[in-house]
Specification:
The chain is about 80% helix and about 0% strand. The chain contains 16 helices and no strands.
Amino acid sequence: MPKVVSKYLIPQFVLAHFSHHVSTGVLVPILPLLREGFGLNYFQSGVLVSAFSLSYGIGQIPMAMLADRFSPRIIILLGLMTVSFTGIAVSLSQTFLQMAACFVAMGLIGGTYHAPASSFISQQLPLEKRGKALGLHVTGGASSFFLTPVMALGIASLLHSWRSAFFILALPALLVGAVLWVTTKPSRTPVSRTKDENGPEGGGTDKASVPEEENVQKTWMQIIHDLGLIVCLTMALWIVFASVNSYLPLYMVDHHNISPKWAGMVISLIAGASLVGAPVGGALSDKIGRKQVIIFAFCLSGPFFFAVTKSPYGILLLLSLVFYGLAMSFRMATMESLIADTVPVGKRSTALGIYFFLGMETAGVTTPIVGGLIDKYGLDPVFNILAIGLCGIGVVAFFLRKRW
């Protein structure tokens, strides 16, 4: 892929990541208003959330394959603008079925961002800067988790309409996509090509300016051999993280007697930790190696979450939550960087799409299972088991580290 002439590439993609999640993140905070406006029951409310989340995972692989076939840049920019249109369509929905269809479309089109963006950024930077760049990119999504609920509820309250929240917060992705269309145009400066290049001009397999070691062709079986074990362990970590985040506010209410009005802020605390952990982990992986940082994250996540389950309410609990969020976020950009380092350019978006698909879909399936276990056995026992499970993942990762 030809290099992009823009010294502000990473800040622009941080903004793009932020705007993408702003457009797609309005549903959950606005859900009580949707329930009131359409007279929904809990099942119908859950259908809206599932319509988006399941299609969001499903959309990862086909959109990533399109990015490899044509161009990550084109898929990203068209995706940003089209996601914006689906948000505007939600604001115009008149029936429950129309709205559900819009969220399905939003989820499928939402798959145009994560894998293609990580692949695109990785192709623009040398190996020694990749982890830091992808870590900074993660902060765009993390910061949106802070601000989207506040912005959505603030707009809906100020303008007395949930529709205005969807409409207004859909616009940033449209504007950012249009700006990136101009600022990320490839350089027209002639570049040397590798002699084994055979991809189409301007397509996803164009290897111009790609380092020699990244042009090495690999089969999918070789890629699975190189990454299979570490991806499986990462999926286990992802599943626990998603399940814990889903029920952590309820844990704060039931275990620590925190007001329901404030319990949800614990998610913002963990998201805030990832604003630091993701770029630090990515930058550290540039210095000492991707796998070393991932092992570090595996080994620390369990003990810190175990500390969360055992700490009394107060400063110890807050510190445990922050360190747990830091440990979990160390592996985010680092894992994306490892995939980018391992997978050749022509397959990279697809590999990242499979990675995001596995994480999103398995977490989506296992989270309600964890909820059923909580209903049967209670929050405390299940959280203790999850903490022990995380510690076990760390032990396995440590002893298998030489096989990666």
